[in-house]
Q: What sequence folds into this?
């Protein structure tokens, strides 16, 4: 099998290195992606040679500024925006904060409509605004994780100031009908924001045709460096800055620009746009091998999320009677990097809010597995996963007292309440 | 995050599986929280002749279950009852702080199994399940 071999650099002799060489397959691209070597090459001169502050008037400053302009153009082109509609931020979370708080603070009061399956960057921002007196409606989703445009429409009232619905869900990969939702928002004269951190570069985005007013992007999900993001703000949409200072980024996000990061992000956007025709069919092919072969081979395994309207790189499963953290640790031991919505793997020790929102119970949510593909994954790697996954699931089921056992969740729920 | 000992027992758990005709069975945890552990004991005189387990949960939950079977096997019931959660964690070279509370259930499981055994001796049936 032609798998990529990664050697442990800490080992001493060549022989030892060979022995410790381990098959490794990275299937956690929704968490982060490797930086494309072409992106690194583009960034490097901006650390040591063109290190100027983009605000400076001298040649050093101009070099930095020009590089930033070029990057801004590349980011804008990925989503069919104008360069002057893009501001650079420190990442997707910051973009979401600037967009949502920016609108809220401009309007000073009112209602916000969002969904119950948003990324914490949106959910927690909305909760923070609730504590400040704003009101928020968290729309439900169906069992596939889809937000219904009709529900958005009926949630709108005279005081609605913002609608924020993610483009694609980071856990289960469901793509939302944001074009329909944005149309409703636009007809009601309400700004529409979307978190497109997971969809950018994988699903075509055209902010003009899709009527989007604000859109969040992140660099490290599209083979760019970490610590950089962008917010698209349609011309004419007014937001209040939440970071004050020297007036960078049209006064909307003060702080000396991270030029190497921005250059890398720009390059990553350029590559994403160029490669989409090639990358997306490749991801579809791998995903559509992974999903049916998993659910058909492994007993009591199910796909979470939408069967069709889903990200090309997302496969999200649940397996009866096993727990996600031990599944991830077992796969990791076989060199496979994946992720789960289980409580045991989260900092909050609660099962994923997304999995609960699509109607799974806690125990089902604990048995979830997210595999997210990337452009560098190969057919052989997917084959390897399809070989290892059934064995790992079987082993954990042998250990589990829940496998093939009658199981009344209500009884356990009552026990929980007693405590 | 996990010690080598935890990983070793997670990958190669000892005394795993259901026991035929156990003398005591204790189930602790709650699958809603993500951890459920069943400990089976076989008693000979006042000693634990055999201890087995089945666990649904994270790597820490599986490793602690395996560890308790090894710690308890061969001990007298009185000594087995003295094994604490901290003893189990210590034998595993420590557990991540967040796991100390939720996944370190094995000592409770063993105590529940012993309680089940005692109740049976008192004519009651071995009590199944001591969630929480």
A:
């Amino acid at each position: 099998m032609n798998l990529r071999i990664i050697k442990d650099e800490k080992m001493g002799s060549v022989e030892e290195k060979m022995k410790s060489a381990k098959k490794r397959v990275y299937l956690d691209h929704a968490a982060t992606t490797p930086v494309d070597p072409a992106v690194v090459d583009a960034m490097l001169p901006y650390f040591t040679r063109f290190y100027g502050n983009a605000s400076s008037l001298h040649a050093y400053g101009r070099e930095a500024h020009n590089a930033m302009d070029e990057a801004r153009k590349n980011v804008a082109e990925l989503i069919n925006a104008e360069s002057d509609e893009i501001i650079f931020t420190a990442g997707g979370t910051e973009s979401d904060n600037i967009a949502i708080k920016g609108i809220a603070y401009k309007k000073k009061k009112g209602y916000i409509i969002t969904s119950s399956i948003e990324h914490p960057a949106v959910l927690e921002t909305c909760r923070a605004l609730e504590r400040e007196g704003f009101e928020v409606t968290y729309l439900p989703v169906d069992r596939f994780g889809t937000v219904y445009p009709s529900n958005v429409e009926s949630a709108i009232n005279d005081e609605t100031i913002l609608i924020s619905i993610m483009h694609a869900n980071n856990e289960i990969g469901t793509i939302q009908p944001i074009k329909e939702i944005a149309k409703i928002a636009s007809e009601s004269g309400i700004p529409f924001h979307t978190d497109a951190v997971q969809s950018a570069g994988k699903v075509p985005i055209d902010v003009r045709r899709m009527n989007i007013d604000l859109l969040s992007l992140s660099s490290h999900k599209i083979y760019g460096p970490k610590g950089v993001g962008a917010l698209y703000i349609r011309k004419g949409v007014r937001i209040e800055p939440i970071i004050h200072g020297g007036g960078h980024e049209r006064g909307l996000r003060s702080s000396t620009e991270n030029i190497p990061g921005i250059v890398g992000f720009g390059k990553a956007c350029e590559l994403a746009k160029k490669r989409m025709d090639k990358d997306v069919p490749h991801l579809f092919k791998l995903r559509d091998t992974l999903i049916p072969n998993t659910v058909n081979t492994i007993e009591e395994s199910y796909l979470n999320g939408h069967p069709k309207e889903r990200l090309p790189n997302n496969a999200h499963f649940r397996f009866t009677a096993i727990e996600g953290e031990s599944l991830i640790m077992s796969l990791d031991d076989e060199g496979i990097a994946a992720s789960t919505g289980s409580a045991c793997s989260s900092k909050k020790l609660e099962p994923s809010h997304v999995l609960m929102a699509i109607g799974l119970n806690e125990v089902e949510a604990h048995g979830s597995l997210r595999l997210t593909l990337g452009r560098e994954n190969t057919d052989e790697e997917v084959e390897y996963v399809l070989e290892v996954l059934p064995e790992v699931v079987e082993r954990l089921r042998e250990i589990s007292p829940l496998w093939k056992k009658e199981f009344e969740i209500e009884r356990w729920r009552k026990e929980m309440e007693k405590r | 995050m996990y010690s080598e000992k935890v990983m070793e027992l997670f990958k190669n758990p000892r005394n795993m599986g259901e026991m035929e005709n156990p003398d005591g069975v204790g189930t602790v945890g709650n699958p809603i929280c993500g951890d459920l552990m069943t400990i089976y004991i076989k008693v000979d005189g006042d000693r634990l002749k055999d201890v087995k387990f089945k666990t649904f949960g994270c790597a820490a939950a599986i490793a602690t279950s395996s560890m308790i079977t090894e710690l308890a096997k061969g001990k007298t019931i009185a000594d087995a009852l003295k094994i604490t959660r901290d003893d189990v964690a210590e034998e595993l070279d420590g557990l991540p702080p967040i796991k100390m509370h939720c996944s370190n259930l094995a000592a409770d499981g063993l105590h529940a199994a012993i309680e089940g055994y005692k109740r049976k001796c008192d004519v009651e049936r071995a009590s199944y399940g001591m969630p929480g």
User: Anything to note?
Assistant: The first helix of chain A runs from residue 14 to 20. Chain A touches chain B through 32 residues (CB under 8 Å).
